[in-house]
Amino acid sequence: MQDKENFQRSGSQRPFPFATPNMSACPQRILVKPRADPIKNPVTGPGSQSVSSASGSSTKEVCLDDFDIGRPLGKGKFGNVYLAKVKKLQAIVALKVLFKSQMEKEGVEHQLRREIEIQSHLKHPNILRFYNYFHDRKRVFLVLEYAPRGEMYKDLQRCGRFDDQRTATYMEEISDALMYCHEKKVIHRDIKPENLLLGYRGELKIADFGWSVHAPSLRRRTMCGTLDYLPPEMIEGHTHSEKVDLWCIGVLCYECLVGNPPFETANHTETYKRITKVDIQFPKFISDGARDLISKLLRHNPIDRLSLQSVIDHPWVRANSHRLLPPCYPSKKS
To answer: Where in the numbering of this chain does the Protein kinase domain appear (predicted)?
Structure first.
């Protein structure tokens, strides 16, 4: 799949609030960037001390000397990701290093603050754990769970497409993770292969919450996400809810099975038209069960989209999924 440029909006520079956006090492698709959503509360990692430089606590702050830095895992627009070991715990983690100057230049500090605020409060086997963060004068460091098998997108590029068993397993895992997010009033809004990592046993991990939002009412109006994955309600300027994630996993299921998104065209306008018309064409090799699932997720009216529990319970998923880790929301048809 070809590289695609990012949409960027110009804006006035703001003081950097030690705040992380997407730093995928793989080719970037076109992104549609939302306006900033201010976060009023201080951020702390789950089960750990606050590491904010503004903290008046006598607790020792985390710093770079607490880690042994290993090989690079990926490189992105705002910095790099490294394999690292926490010296005291002898624990392996991924250390994401972001340069403040680059984020200030692009005006995306709010994304970092939002990502930390949301991901630090999520704990699910199919969501990449956020452990802590710290910063110095030039950089912000995020301490994250290490996913040994790397990026789903790279695997998809290497394989061309996935079989029914692998795709159905991913669909069960991501549906379970999103049910957990939605229960906590978190809408992800940017599910795609670039934002999914694979754990030690090949399990899926949602790894990027840069476009996500905590919306207690589950209603939003900002346009964001990746062009090929945008749902009709965003393109048409309507308010959207957590059901945008249902559309996204329908697109994801198609891309895993076919190798490219269902509405991809040579230009933006044509892609928008195909999305709003839900102009989806299935190759002959796609099974009837997979077609049925995808067709029930890619519905123009959000209310008509299959629920996440129904995705888990879908006959094609039940027949093909080989999920290893116990789910938070088991199938009602097991």
So the answer is: 67-317
Express each pLDDT in 59-104 by its tens digit.
568 999 999 999 999 887 888 999 999 999 999 999 999 999 999 9
CB within 8 Å of 14: residues ≥ 6 apart: 104, 107, 109
Residue 36 binned pLDDT confidence (cut-offs 50, 70, 90): very low
User: Binding residue per annotation — 88?
Assistant: no
Handedness of CA 116, 117, 119, 121 (dihedral sign): positive
For the chain, domain boundaries: 34-41+59-144, 152-320
Question: Using one digit for the tens of pLDDT, what is the confidence trace for 150-198?
Answer: 999 999 999 999 999 999 999 999 999 999 999 999 998 889 998 999 9
Which fold is adopted by the domain 34-41+59-144? Answer: Phosphorylase Kinase; domain 1 (3.30.200)
Residue type, 192: K
Was 96 annotated as part of a binding site?
yes
The whole-angstrom separation of Cα 1 and Cα 33 is 21
CA distances from 22 to 26, 71, 190 (A): 11, 20, 10
CATH classification for the domain delimited by 152-320, as one of 1.10.510.10, 1.10.1520.10, 1.10.390.10, 3.40.50.150: 1.10.510.10
Question: Is 194 assigned to a binding site?
Answer: yes
Catalytically active residues are 190
- Is 36 annotated in a binding site? The answer is no
Beta bridge partners of 31: 226
